[in-house]
TrEMBL record:
Family: Belongs to the OSBP family.
Compositionally skewed regions (Basic and acidic residues) per UniProt: 417-427
GO cellular component: cortical endoplasmic reticulum; cytosol; membrane
Annotated region (Disordered), positions in chain: 1-30, 417-441
Gene3D superfamilies from the UniProt entry: 1.10.287.2720, 2.40.160.120, 3.30.70.3490
The organism of origin for this protein: Penicillium roqueforti (strain FM164)
Lineage top rank: taxon: Eukaryota
Name of protein: Oxysterol-binding protein-like protein OBPa
Record Pfam families: Oxysterol_BP (PF01237)
Single annotated GO MF: sterol binding
BP-aspect Gene Ontology terms: lipid transport
Entry keywords, A to Z: Lipid transport, Lipid-binding, Transport
Length: 441
């Protein structure tokens, strides 16, 4: 049966058309978000099969983690100017601005993306106002422990990002934490070493779901993350502050930018990661708005029609599950999700019986250590398995497109006309937006 031409832009895309809330206390919380425990208990009956107990739909975001990572690259107005800045300190500040620009992109309430299965892939691209294009390739390179590896490139701007995200769940009484291990390496290839570029090593804050047993559920980012440029000895230590019991506010950040070699602090950071963020020069005491997430409009990526995707690509793989989540059909969503997870378990068992080791299709293990081609980048674990000449935009584009299908197959000679379709839940009034793609010859 052919898959309908339905491309999900998700709840996060809706936020690109609205102002982000100024603080977490203004965030709309769904009426049904009492707590997870009560939803589970309400399903228990004498003789009930515990394996059939379903999580409430507000826990599940209708997209895979591989797709959610693209929030990181969704503000071209912060991404594209970085390579053009000549002063190394100003350039570093621009990278910090880019790094901070994507955190406000999130669904309302507390949502958990779908866990990618082993070998799942997601690809997409962005068409920028200046006529250039960027590409994203990702693959789930490990299931236990989970590792999501990704590659991003804007060839005409000579910007490349390699990353592996390694989330680890941890329960903390009335809270659940996703400890976001792993790094990303952003390279500005028009600066620094010709082969490696000028590197910026990025880590992520941890994510917390508060109130999972009692009280209202709340999403927070917490702890320290870092942006570090080893070539220029610059580092930003950014603290995502969680609200205290009696003081503080939601979604606050603080931090400094300093020269690691001299220890000199150059700037102070403050504000709200979903509101205004400020940069203060410690010498002149002049403070400027670094980024205003309240009025920021992000750019969701473009994807191929679902019928051109393979059965292991995220949007096709999870299509039925996502449809059920959006329809708030708890039982069907669980059935569809379980089918995929059971298939993964069967595949794992079969490989074990046959003595076959699984290897990623699009990524290779990092070759680190002294003298290795990836020396100093060991924490990536996996990197795209292709040579990309980022000094030559045309060649780089050809090399990227030869790895895996990313853009629509031009041989179909079809034009895709897109229209925004909204679905509103009758009880919560929450709207989910989709792009309904209709093909014409």
């Amino acid at each position: 049966m052919p898959v309908p031409h339905l491309r999900r832009t998700s709840q996060a895309s809706r936020s690109s058309m609205e102002d982000s809330p100024a603080s977490g206390e203004d965030e709309v919380v769904e009426p049904e978000q009492g707590n997870v425990l009560s939803h589970i208990i309400s399903q228990l009956r004498p003789g009930a099969d515990l394996s059939r107990v379903v999580l409430p739909t507000f826990i599940l975001e209708p997209r895979s983690m591989l797709e959610r990572i693209t929030n990181f690259m969704a503000h071209p107005e912060t991404l594209l100017p970085m390579s053009e800045i000549e002063d190394p300190v100003e350039r570093f500040v621009s990278v910090v601005k880019f790094y901070l620009s994507g955190w406000h992109i999130k669904p309302q309430g507390v949502k958990k993306p779908l866990n990618p299965i082993l070998g799942e892939t997601f690809t997409c691209y962005w068409d920028y106002p200046d006529g250039t294009r960027a590409y994203y390739i990702s693959e789930q390179t490990s299931h236990h422990p989970p590792k999501s590896s990704y590659f991003f490139a804007a060839p005409d701007h000579k910007i490349r990002i390699d990353g592996t995200l390694k989330p680890r769940s941890k329960f903390l009484g009335n809270s659940a934490a996703s400890i976001m291990e792993g790094i990303a390496i952003l390279r500005l290839m028009s600066h620094g070493d010709k082969e490696k570029g000028e590197r910026y090593i990025l880590t992520q804050p941890n994510m917390y779901a508060r109130g999972i047993l009692f009280g209202k559920m709340k999403y927070e980012l917490g702890d320290h993350s870092y942006v570090r440029c080893p070539e220029n000895h610059l580092v930003a230590d950014i603290e995502f502050k969680t609200k205290g019991y009696f003081s503080g506010t939601y979604n606050a950040i603080g931090g400094t930018i300093k020269n690691e070699k001299t220890g000199e602090v150059l700037y102070e950071l403050s504000g709200l990661w979903n509101g205004e963020m400020y940069l203060k020069d410690v010498h002149t005491h002049k403070q400027d708005v670094l980024f205003d997430a309240r009025h920021a409009k992000h750019s969701p990526p473009l994807v191929r029609p679902i019928d051109q995707q393979g059965d292991r690509e995220s949007q096709r793989l999870w299509h039925n599950t996502v449809e059920a989540i959006v329809a708030r059909n708890h039982i069907l969503a669980t059935d569809e999700k379980t089918k995929i997870e059971d298939r993964q378990r069967d595949e794992t068992a079969k490989r074990a019986d046959e003595g076959i080791d699984w290897h990623p299709r699009l990524f290779r293990a990092v070759q680190g250590g002294p003298g290795g081609p990836d020396e100093g980048e060991e924490d990536l674990d996996w990197i795209i398995n292709a040579q990309i000449d980022m000094q030559n935009p045309q060649v780089a584009t050809e090399q990227i497109l030869s790895i895996v299908p990313i853009v629509q197959d031009s041989e179909t000679k079809t034009t895709v006309h897109q229209s925004i379709v909204e679905r509103k839940d009758s009880q919560t009034s929450e709207e989910e937006q989709f792009v309904d793609a209709q093909e014409t010859s």
